Amino acid sequence: MPMMRIINQLKYCVIIILVCLIAIPALAKTQLDSDNDGVQDKDEVEIYHTNPLNPDTDGDGYNDWLELNNGYSPLSSKKVKLKDNDYDSDGLSDRMELNFHTDLTNPDTDNDGHKDGEEINNGYDPLKAGNVKLSKKIEINTGKEQKLYYFLNNVRMGEFKISSGKLSMQTPRGNFKIDGKALRAWSKYGLWMPYWMSLKNGYFGIHELPEWPNRTKEGENHLGIPVSHGCVRLGVGPAEFLYNWAPVGTPVKIY
Predict the structure, then answer these.
(1) Apex 53 CA angle, 52 and 56, nearest 5
(2) Which domain holds residue 220?
Protein backbone atom coordinates (compact mmCIF):
# COMPACT_ATOMS: atom_id res chain seq x y z
CA MET A 1 0.00 0.00 0.00
CA PRO A 2 2.73 2.53 0.83
CA MET A 3 4.49 1.63 -2.44
CA MET A 4 1.32 2.34 -4.49
CA ARG A 5 0.93 5.69 -2.75
CA ILE A 6 4.51 6.60 -3.64
CA ILE A 7 3.96 5.59 -7.27
CA ASN A 8 0.78 7.71 -7.49
CA GLN A 9 2.57 10.69 -5.98
CA LEU A 10 5.37 10.30 -8.52
CA LYS A 11 2.78 10.28 -11.31
CA TYR A 12 1.32 13.56 -10.05
CA CYS A 13 4.79 15.09 -9.87
CA VAL A 14 5.53 14.09 -13.46
CA ILE A 15 2.23 15.60 -14.64
CA ILE A 16 2.91 18.87 -12.82
CA ILE A 17 6.42 19.09 -14.29
CA LEU A 18 5.08 18.48 -17.83
CA VAL A 19 2.40 21.17 -17.38
CA CYS A 20 5.04 23.66 -16.20
CA LEU A 21 7.33 22.83 -19.12
CA ILE A 22 4.50 23.49 -21.56
CA ALA A 23 3.14 26.62 -19.83
CA ILE A 24 6.44 28.44 -19.27
CA PRO A 25 7.38 28.76 -22.99
CA ALA A 26 3.82 29.92 -23.78
CA LEU A 27 4.01 32.54 -21.02
CA ALA A 28 7.45 33.63 -22.17
CA LYS A 29 6.11 34.10 -25.67
CA THR A 30 3.28 36.37 -24.53
CA GLN A 31 5.65 38.39 -22.34
CA LEU A 32 8.39 38.66 -24.96
CA ASP A 33 10.10 42.05 -25.05
CA SER A 34 12.62 41.78 -27.88
CA ASP A 35 14.02 45.31 -27.55
CA ASN A 36 13.99 45.37 -23.72
CA ASP A 37 12.17 48.70 -23.60
CA GLY A 38 9.66 47.54 -20.98
CA VAL A 39 6.77 47.15 -23.43
CA GLN A 40 5.82 43.62 -24.50
CA ASP A 41 6.12 42.85 -28.21
CA LYS A 42 2.41 41.91 -28.36
CA ASP A 43 1.40 45.34 -27.01
CA GLU A 44 3.88 47.16 -29.24
CA VAL A 45 2.38 45.53 -32.34
CA GLU A 46 -1.32 45.34 -31.43
CA ILE A 47 -1.89 48.42 -29.25
CA TYR A 48 0.79 51.09 -29.53
CA HIS A 49 2.02 50.34 -33.08
CA THR A 50 5.62 50.93 -32.00
CA ASN A 51 8.62 48.96 -33.24
CA PRO A 52 9.14 45.83 -31.08
CA LEU A 53 12.76 45.66 -32.27
CA ASN A 54 13.58 49.30 -31.47
CA PRO A 55 13.40 50.51 -27.84
CA ASP A 56 13.03 54.11 -29.02
CA THR A 57 10.60 54.00 -31.94
CA ASP A 58 10.57 57.75 -32.65
CA GLY A 59 14.29 58.22 -32.02
CA ASP A 60 13.91 61.07 -29.53
CA GLY A 61 16.25 59.63 -26.90
CA TYR A 62 13.53 58.21 -24.63
CA ASN A 63 12.46 54.58 -24.74
CA ASP A 64 8.88 53.68 -25.59
CA TRP A 65 7.96 52.54 -22.06
CA LEU A 66 9.24 55.78 -20.49
CA GLU A 67 7.24 57.90 -22.93
CA LEU A 68 4.02 55.92 -22.56
CA ASN A 69 4.19 55.88 -18.77
CA ASN A 70 4.70 59.64 -18.67
CA GLY A 71 1.86 60.33 -21.11
CA TYR A 72 4.01 61.14 -24.17
CA SER A 73 3.69 59.81 -27.69
CA PRO A 74 6.28 57.16 -28.63
CA LEU A 75 5.43 57.77 -32.30
CA SER A 76 6.47 61.43 -32.47
CA SER A 77 10.01 62.74 -32.03
CA LYS A 78 8.50 66.00 -30.77
CA LYS A 79 7.87 66.39 -27.04
CA VAL A 80 4.12 65.98 -27.36
CA LYS A 81 1.61 64.42 -24.97
CA LEU A 82 -0.68 61.61 -26.10
CA LYS A 83 -3.68 63.84 -25.38
CA ASP A 84 -2.31 66.51 -27.75
CA ASN A 85 -1.15 64.20 -30.55
CA ASP A 86 -3.24 62.82 -33.40
CA TYR A 87 -0.88 60.51 -35.27
CA ASP A 88 -3.36 59.43 -37.96
CA SER A 89 -5.13 62.82 -38.26
CA ASP A 90 -8.60 61.36 -37.67
CA GLY A 91 -9.78 63.97 -35.21
CA LEU A 92 -9.24 61.70 -32.20
CA SER A 93 -6.22 62.20 -29.94
CA ASP A 94 -3.83 59.31 -29.39
CA ARG A 95 -4.90 59.27 -25.72
CA MET A 96 -8.53 58.78 -26.73
CA GLU A 97 -7.55 56.20 -29.34
CA LEU A 98 -6.00 54.13 -26.55
CA ASN A 99 -9.06 54.68 -24.35
CA PHE A 100 -11.42 53.46 -27.09
CA HIS A 101 -9.03 50.73 -28.32
CA THR A 102 -8.95 52.12 -31.85
CA ASP A 103 -5.95 51.95 -34.21
CA LEU A 104 -3.60 54.92 -33.68
CA THR A 105 -2.30 54.52 -37.24
CA ASN A 106 -5.63 54.04 -39.05
CA PRO A 107 -8.03 57.00 -39.27
CA ASP A 108 -10.97 54.66 -39.89
CA THR A 109 -10.47 51.65 -37.62
CA ASP A 110 -13.66 49.81 -38.63
CA ASN A 111 -13.34 50.80 -42.33
CA ASP A 112 -16.92 52.05 -42.54
CA GLY A 113 -16.07 55.28 -44.35
CA HIS A 114 -16.20 57.49 -41.25
CA LYS A 115 -13.11 58.64 -39.36
CA ASP A 116 -12.76 57.55 -35.74
CA GLY A 117 -12.99 61.13 -34.48
CA GLU A 118 -16.19 61.75 -36.45
CA GLU A 119 -17.77 58.62 -35.00
CA ILE A 120 -16.81 59.42 -31.41
CA ASN A 121 -18.00 63.03 -31.75
CA ASN A 122 -21.38 61.73 -32.88
CA GLY A 123 -21.57 58.97 -30.29
CA TYR A 124 -20.98 56.00 -32.59
CA ASP A 125 -18.76 52.96 -32.04
CA PRO A 126 -15.53 53.34 -34.08
CA LEU A 127 -14.85 49.61 -33.73
CA LYS A 128 -18.05 48.44 -35.43
CA ALA A 129 -19.19 49.26 -38.96
CA GLY A 130 -22.69 50.69 -39.12
CA ASN A 131 -24.62 53.01 -36.85
CA VAL A 132 -23.88 51.42 -33.48
CA LYS A 133 -24.38 53.93 -30.67
CA LEU A 134 -22.21 54.06 -27.54
CA SER A 135 -23.70 54.57 -24.08
CA LYS A 136 -23.57 57.99 -22.44
CA LYS A 137 -23.70 59.07 -18.83
CA ILE A 138 -23.15 62.14 -16.64
CA GLU A 139 -21.67 62.38 -13.16
CA ILE A 140 -21.88 65.50 -10.99
CA ASN A 141 -19.75 66.27 -7.96
CA THR A 142 -21.63 68.72 -5.73
CA GLY A 143 -18.86 68.81 -3.11
CA LYS A 144 -15.80 71.04 -3.17
CA GLU A 145 -15.00 70.06 -6.75
CA GLN A 146 -18.24 71.48 -8.18
CA LYS A 147 -17.68 69.63 -11.45
CA LEU A 148 -19.80 67.85 -14.05
CA TYR A 149 -18.19 64.98 -15.96
CA TYR A 150 -19.59 63.38 -19.10
CA PHE A 151 -18.73 59.89 -20.34
CA LEU A 152 -19.00 57.98 -23.59
CA ASN A 153 -18.85 54.19 -23.17
CA ASN A 154 -17.37 54.77 -19.67
CA VAL A 155 -14.57 56.91 -21.10
CA ARG A 156 -14.47 60.36 -19.50
CA MET A 157 -14.69 62.82 -22.36
CA GLY A 158 -14.57 66.11 -20.48
CA GLU A 159 -15.65 68.19 -17.52
CA PHE A 160 -17.36 71.49 -16.75
CA LYS A 161 -17.44 73.71 -13.71
CA ILE A 162 -20.88 73.98 -12.10
CA SER A 163 -22.80 75.70 -9.35
CA SER A 164 -25.00 73.33 -7.33
CA GLY A 165 -27.55 74.08 -4.61
CA LYS A 166 -26.65 76.27 -1.66
CA LEU A 167 -26.58 74.83 1.87
CA SER A 168 -30.24 75.57 2.57
CA MET A 169 -31.40 74.20 -0.84
CA GLN A 170 -28.98 71.42 -1.65
CA THR A 171 -29.05 69.59 -4.95
CA PRO A 172 -30.59 66.11 -4.50
CA ARG A 173 -28.06 63.30 -4.64
CA GLY A 174 -28.60 59.90 -6.20
CA ASN A 175 -29.15 58.28 -9.59
CA PHE A 176 -31.46 60.01 -12.07
CA LYS A 177 -32.13 60.25 -15.80
CA ILE A 178 -32.72 63.24 -18.04
CA ASP A 179 -36.49 62.94 -18.48
CA GLY A 180 -37.22 66.06 -20.51
CA LYS A 181 -35.61 68.98 -22.30
CA ALA A 182 -36.50 72.53 -23.26
CA LEU A 183 -34.49 75.30 -24.87
CA ARG A 184 -35.86 77.75 -22.30
CA ALA A 185 -37.77 76.85 -19.14
CA TRP A 186 -39.38 79.32 -16.73
CA SER A 187 -38.44 79.27 -13.06
CA LYS A 188 -40.84 80.09 -10.24
CA TYR A 189 -38.16 82.53 -9.07
CA GLY A 190 -38.89 84.72 -12.09
CA LEU A 191 -35.96 83.75 -14.31
CA TRP A 192 -35.44 81.83 -17.52
CA MET A 193 -33.36 78.63 -17.43
CA PRO A 194 -31.78 78.15 -20.87
CA TYR A 195 -30.97 74.65 -22.14
CA TRP A 196 -33.11 73.01 -19.49
CA MET A 197 -32.49 69.28 -18.84
CA SER A 198 -35.12 67.99 -16.44
CA LEU A 199 -34.40 65.55 -13.62
CA LYS A 200 -36.96 63.84 -11.39
CA ASN A 201 -39.83 65.01 -13.62
CA GLY A 202 -38.87 68.67 -13.39
CA TYR A 203 -38.32 68.78 -9.62
CA PHE A 204 -34.85 70.09 -10.47
CA GLY A 205 -32.53 70.03 -13.46
CA ILE A 206 -29.36 71.05 -15.25
CA HIS A 207 -29.32 74.35 -17.13
CA GLU A 208 -27.29 77.33 -18.24
CA LEU A 209 -26.82 80.28 -15.88
CA PRO A 210 -30.33 81.69 -15.39
CA GLU A 211 -31.49 84.88 -17.13
CA TRP A 212 -33.68 87.71 -15.95
CA PRO A 213 -36.43 88.75 -18.41
CA ASN A 214 -34.12 91.55 -19.63
CA ARG A 215 -31.56 88.85 -20.65
CA THR A 216 -29.15 89.72 -17.84
CA LYS A 217 -27.32 86.63 -16.63
CA GLU A 218 -27.52 85.66 -12.97
CA GLY A 219 -24.47 84.37 -11.12
CA GLU A 220 -21.84 84.58 -13.87
CA ASN A 221 -19.11 84.67 -11.21
CA HIS A 222 -20.65 81.89 -9.11
CA LEU A 223 -19.46 78.86 -11.08
CA GLY A 224 -17.51 76.65 -8.72
CA ILE A 225 -19.59 77.88 -5.76
CA PRO A 226 -22.81 76.18 -4.55
CA VAL A 227 -25.36 79.02 -4.71
CA SER A 228 -28.30 77.75 -6.78
CA HIS A 229 -31.81 76.93 -5.58
CA GLY A 230 -31.14 73.21 -6.08
CA CYS A 231 -30.51 72.97 -9.80
CA VAL A 232 -27.12 72.37 -11.41
CA ARG A 233 -25.97 75.49 -13.24
CA LEU A 234 -23.54 75.41 -16.16
CA GLY A 235 -21.73 78.25 -17.89
CA VAL A 236 -22.49 79.74 -21.30
CA GLY A 237 -21.28 77.27 -23.91
CA PRO A 238 -21.04 74.11 -21.79
CA ALA A 239 -24.80 74.07 -21.18
CA GLU A 240 -25.62 74.24 -24.89
CA PHE A 241 -23.03 71.55 -25.63
CA LEU A 242 -24.41 69.18 -22.98
CA TYR A 243 -28.00 69.87 -24.07
CA ASN A 244 -27.14 68.76 -27.61
CA TRP A 245 -24.86 65.90 -26.50
CA ALA A 246 -27.08 64.16 -23.92
CA PRO A 247 -30.40 62.73 -25.16
CA VAL A 248 -33.44 62.18 -22.99
CA GLY A 249 -32.81 59.02 -20.95
CA THR A 250 -29.14 59.77 -20.26
CA PRO A 251 -28.23 58.50 -16.74
CA VAL A 252 -27.11 61.17 -14.27
CA LYS A 253 -25.32 60.34 -11.04
CA ILE A 254 -25.12 63.13 -8.46
CA TYR A 255 -22.93 62.83 -5.39
Answers:
(1) 85
(2) 136-254
